[in-house]
Amino acid sequence: MQIDFQGSGLQGARPPPDADRQRMMWINADRVLYLGLLGEPTVRCFGGFSVYLSLRGTHRICVDGGDWQDCAVSVVPPYVRHRIVSGERMICNLLVEAETVDVAALPAHLRAGRGAVDAPAALQRMREALDILRRADNRRYASTAAFDEAFFGAPLRTRALDARVQAVLDRIKSDPNGHVSAQECAVAAHLSVSRFLHLFKAETGSPFRSFRTWQRARSLLYYVTQSSNLTDIALDAGYPDSTHFSHSIRQVYGLTPKSIFAGSRKLALYASGAGVPRLGYH
DNA sequence: GTCCGCAGAGAGAGAAACAA
DNA sequence: TTGTTTCTCTCTCTGCGGAC
């Protein structure tokens, strides 16, 4: 396969293959790229468009209680429960935050995908982008647009949102582990709580609480390489105690926090841009 | 079209108990 | 001591009718 490093969007990309540095995660406020162990998750439910990509073979996926499907690439819409198993230990998972994109303008396989996807060209592009990334010296994308360019062929068009809702989104995403209530947001938006909740759902496509829960669970990804105990990490991530932490994380990722951290020990983490939570223990 | 308020249903948060 | 499970209560979601 011919790999073109020009225009890949990678900062300082060059091709030194190194099998020991394969497990990695790149994350910013709008996108996540995870390349690592899948484990044995039960039902999971992410708040963004989720793309699973097998590295060589295939995986099996079951979306919203439907039939199991065998495929190399699959897509799960935001807030849809699904299960996944793979014959390979490693898997690639891309996450596109739903509120950051104009759904109508998404590539067809993302927009309409629900489980296995038959999109050979998209599969080849994503595998090539992944290959470039795995060979790169500095695995950071300069921007969300550069990430989109690499994996989807072009920057994904952003969604135009109501300014009041956008302000709330910015507030939550800039500090996902801070607790902000619907009432506070409604006051800030100069709306009643009822009206705010309706408007939020209409604009973003997801309920306020679901979005807040997802953002908090998502912020866990910034901590997965830390070696502190889970209680400290739960508090840092904005959970009142390890009870909620364990419960919420299992609902989102289908794995216990313990197994997530165990599987992330050798993971190289590349975080950038807004949304990186404040680190530091209580 | 935008906004408000009500009410029933359901999910999330908090407390306690249990297991390793 | 740490992490997980279970149970109960509170808060949020959502559909609806109505006012402006």
Automatic annotation (TrEMBL):
| Pfam short name (any one) | HTH_18
Residue stretches making up the HTH araC/xylS-type domain = 166-263
Q: Cross-referenced Gene3D superfamilies, in alphabetical order?
A: Homeodomain-like (1.10.10.60)
* Cited InterPro entries: Homeodomain-like_sf, HTH_AraC, HTH_AraC-typ_CS
Keywords, ordered alphabetically: DNA-binding, Transcription, Transcription regulation
Q: Which GO terms describe its molecular function?
A: DNA-binding transcription factor activity; sequence-specific DNA binding
Against SMART domains, the record matches this protein to:
HTH_ARAC
Q: Which PANTHER family match?
A: ARAC-FAMILY TRANSCRIPTIONAL REGULATOR, TRANSCRIPTIONAL REGULATORY PROTEIN
Protein name from the UniProt record: AraC-like DNA-binding protein
